[in-house]
Design brief:
The protein contains 14 helices and 33 strands. The chain is an alpha+beta fold and 611 residues long. The chain is elongated and about 100 Å long.
Length: 611
């Protein structure tokens, strides 16, 4: 039952006190339960509103009481549902955006042709050009038979489109039309100014023609700017739809296309998954460049490093806890930090002798922090709605650590994907390049990360090592210590953690180095580097695990240092949403000596590629 009244109206008339008029109209429309849009400006009013018969009648009484709008013409149609979501009353520079100065429809209008007069002309077969001034997406749903579309995507393009019309049209009779007539109010005077001598505008537009003459000489439906999308010549809602992605109106036939995915795409904006992924990745790379130009840690800032007291230090003096937990920092250095007031909690600075308790949180404040430079050339290999696969450059830490807080993968990706905060599913050293898998939500992280813990993820690394392995296939199961001496330095210890890495020799090079594929079965920190170091074949470029079983002075490389020749090359795991096995491969770095591979590649179930 069509009990919702839809009205469309406009009038060019001088209006003043617009703020008060806006307040009054909005208040009363909301009170009456109306929805739609009313635009007001000093040049007049333009509105599309829907509601009950009684509410619409109240609005019309209100509008006709405004000086200048006493004879406001109104077009009505009916629907069985409310076609608008909310009630908007806005003050605008123009009630129909045109952007050309000196056009005054109120004082210098073009001649109008009534709907019945146009029908008579068309019945008689008069020689006349019908000019459709609407946007192309409106025209595609329907227009007058034999009409000439002006060819624009927005009405602001109309002046340029007029100047492209054939010169002979300036001497011919031209009847222009639009949905309700308002665009022609400005289009007509503009065309006359451009030298067109016989310009007429269809009074009330297509909707008025439908109301008075039905659909004779018209083919299709008429696009309307509400949830009905289109009405037929009987002014009834049609089965046309609007594409959520590109806002293109769609006929019933177009909605049956396999490329029409409600809420995602239609035949006009559909892109193959690979093309869509390529566009998305390009946009992500732009966002990453914006987030790293300049590097986020390159400008001085106050860095607040969190400290949480573990259970085993419950009841310690603060400085004793720090010296025991972080022995690589001298006691005098910790005391200086306390003396400067740079160790704080929520209440402010705390003393070195304060007793700390398990679970308490503090911050070490580092004013004027400037972080070392990193390589921020992060490349996105793949993303869908649940995961992101990154080719990480080096040096670039993943998490905040040591001298790094903002110049990290996590911080940069959070900035590029804001408001999302992608989470890494596994570790990769600052100096190691290659694949890092990230989850886009906490829920996905809960499905993905346990696969690493259960050793269900297959990982392969490309490594360049000193020396030539004696065997093509070999393993190392040397146990790895939790810690030895300086924080973060692991070694091979008899009572260390169980560790296993499988190796394949890929190439023995003339310079005395070799390319090796490493497949860690366990996931200990520095496992591949330690196992190769233990076997007498340390990784080329490793600043820590040096030849001849020596340990180097530093862990993190600088941009100027030769690279660590360790690259996370391949990975395979079960997709957290699709439930199928997926695999990814990162391009090999230059130091791999042009080793032949098909990288980059990925193996995905079809549904995973839809972003």
């Amino acid at each position: 039952m069509n009990d919702v009244v839809n009205i469309a109206a406009y009038k060019f008339a001088p209006l003043d006190d617009l703020k008060e008029l806006r307040r009054r109209l909005r208040k009363r429309c909301v009170r009456w339960g109306l929805m739609g849009t009313i635009l007001i400006s000093t040049e007049g009013i333009n509105l599309f509103v829907a509601g009950s018969r009684a509410a619409i009648d109240k609005l019309l009484v209100e509008l006709h009481g405004i000086p200048g709008l006493e004879d406001l013409p109104v077009k009505e149609s009916f629907s069985d549902h409310q076609p608008f979501n909310r009630m908007l009353v806005r003050i605008k520079q123009e009630i129909i955006a045109f952007g050309v100065d000196g056009i005054e429809p109120r004082t210098k209008p073009s001649p109008k042709l009534t709907a019945r007069e146009l029908k008579q002309w068309l019945d008689e077969g008069r020689t006349v050009t019908l000019l459709d001034t609407r946007n192309d997406y409106e025209v595609k749903l329907g227009t007058f038979r034999g009409a000439r579309p002006i060819g624009v995507d927005h009405f602001r393009e109309f002046p340029a489109a007029v100047r492209r019309l054939p010169a002979e049209m300036k001497e011919q009779p031209v009847v222009m039309y639009c949905t309700g007539g308002i665009r022609c109010e400005k289009a007509g005077p503009f065309m006359e100014r451009e030298g067109f001598k016989q310009i007429f505008q269809l009074d009330g537009g297509i909707l008025k023609y439908f109301e008075e003459c039905g659909g004779e000489h018209y083919e299709g439906d008429c696009f309307v700017f509400d949830q009905r999308v289109a009405v037929d010549p009987q002014l009834q809602e049609t089965d046309a739809a609007l594409c959520f992605a590109c806002q293109e109106p769609l006929t019933a036939e177009e909605q049956r296309s396999a490329k029409y995915i409600p809420g995602q795409s239609c035949p006009y904006c559909y892109k193959e998954p690979e093309e869509r992924l390529s566009i998305t990745i390009g946009q992500r790379h732009e966002a990453i460049r914006a987030a790293t130009t300049p590097l986020p840690g390159s400008q001085p800032y106050e860095n607040r490093r969190p400290i949480k007291v573990p259970q085993r230090f419950d009841g310690f003096e603060f400085i004793e806890f720090l010296c025991s937990c972080l022995p690589h920092v001298a006691r005098d250095d910790w005391q200086a930090i306390f003396d400067a007031g740079h160790m704080v909690n929520a209440e402010g600075p705390v003393s070195a002798t304060r007793i700390v308790y398990a679970g308490e949180r503090f911050h070490h404040v580092l004013p004027g922090t400037i972080e070392p430079e990193v390589n921020a050339d992060i490349q996105i290999l793949f993303e869908d709605k649940s995961i992101i696969v990154v080719n990480k450059p080096a040096p670039l830490p993943i998490h905040a650590c040591g001298q790094f807080n903002r110049n990290t993968l996590m911080h940069i990706m959070a900035a590029a994907y804001r408001p999302e905060r992608p989470r890494v599913a596994h570790r990769l050293d600052s100096n190691t390049t290659g694949i890092v898998v990230m989850s886009r939500t906490r829920h996905i992280a809960g499905l993905l990360q346990p696969q690493f813990e259960r050793r269900e993820v297959e990982k392969a690394y490309m490594v360049r090592v000193h020396g030539h392995p004696a065997q093509d296939e070999f393993t190392c199961d040397a146990p790895i210590s939790i810690e030895n001496g300086a924080v973060g330095v692991r070694t091979i210890e008899p009572d260390g953690l169980e560790s296993l890495t499988e190796f394949s020799t890929l190439a023995r090079l003339d310079d005395g180095t070799s390319l090796v594929e490493a497949r860690p079965i366990t996931g200990r920190t520095n496992q591949i580097r330690l196992h190769l170091w233990h076997l007498g074949m340390p990784v080329v470029g490793d600043p820590l695990y040096l030849p001849n079983q020596q340990v180097g002075p530093k862990q993190t490389l600088s941009l100027a240092d030769p690279p660590l020749c360790l690259h996370a090359w391949r990975i395979a795991f079960t997709h957290p949403l699709a439930g199928e096995r997926v695999s990814f491969e990162a391009p090999l770095p230059d130091w791999s000596a042009n080793f032949e591979t098909k990288s980059p590649s990925r193996s995905l179930p079809p549904e995973v590629t839809y972003l």
